[in-house]
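Attaching the record inline, Q. Sequence:
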Amino acid sequence: MSKLAILGGEPVRKKPFEYYPNYDEKEKAAVNSVLESRLLSGFYKDYKTGGPKLQEFEKDFANYHNTNYAIGVNSGTAALHAGLVALGIKDNDEVLVPSYTFTSSASSILMCNATPIFCDVDENTLNIDTKNLESLISEKTKAIMAVHLLGNPCDMNSILDFAKKNNLKVLEDCAQSPGAKYENKLVGTFGDISCFSFVETKNIVTGEGGMIITNNKEYNNILRLVRSHGEVLVDKGRSYLSSILGWNYRMTEIEAAIGIEQLKKMDSMNQLRINNAKILDSVSNLNGLSKIITPGNNSVNVYHAYALLYDKNISEVSRDILLKALNAEGIEVDKGYPHPLYLNPIFLEDGKGIYKKGLNPVAEKLCFETAIWIRKIMHPNNEEDMKDIVNGFEKVFENLDDLRNMEK
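Structure, as predicted:
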């Protein structure tokens, strides 16, 4: 056994893992075509639809998901907020949302002056656990947000059954999961409205940007109003008549041009993540580690990140020491979300007294004890990079006795 780097030995990997958006000459040519057109935001020429690149991106995205409508916006957060507005979420309404997710899933609910009701998650999938939701329902509950976390699809059959039983709308948060499938059907095609993000860390990127899809004509009309200041939409030009409260959530032509090309590559880029994840699966065989489960038959996880579950009672080494040892070997890992959303100050200080430690035990266990995330599984990282990760884990786990001694 070689000496651990944290104790002065040579690290397994001496160069950092890289990440940069996977684009080539096609994206560059698409951006140049927009610059040459001098139409950077087509909304000033056609306020109802936006520019030709945005219209093309929306059409392509809708076709990919076999849905009736796609509405491009300027961020995933804008998509979530606009989606909730279209579903009619307003003051004093309640929306069920998992507590183990990114801030926007819950802050978008606050943006509607509604209340997020935090739900615990299934430790095996990291997604919302419908078995614990019945006690959270009230006469104010209007919707459930299904967050497909880290590329792993939710158990949509359970969510849809629960929503139907309780007369709830379903919004799918697909920010980390474009192209993922649940029982051979794309995520985003189950709910009333579904939202995607294209910020530069996501599975496909436009810099910033987001998309909303729906099959409902009324929701489509509301979403287009919300996107552009709530103004009454006319065939061309502007009406300057605001019929509802709206925002400026418009996507630029440059973002849309990049998105058109990125969407063409999405399946292949997701396949790279899937291939890399298969190599990392061997790590989950180490004593004290296990991988998360993808629910349903013929379902596909597209691995926005690779998550492991760690049991310190088996290894007898704390997660903090383990992570320090792995990072010393040049293996970039972290604990994922450091706390459930309800322990953020914006929720602790809401004055309603419903958010406190202990609310969602599984989410807290993931944050404080068990979750380990490997993020650098995307382009340009390849098989050799994944083998370094595996070797780093194996080296550390071969030297657990040394780590135990460090903690004495």
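The longest helix spans residues 253-280. The chain has a mean pLDDT of 94.

More tomorrow.
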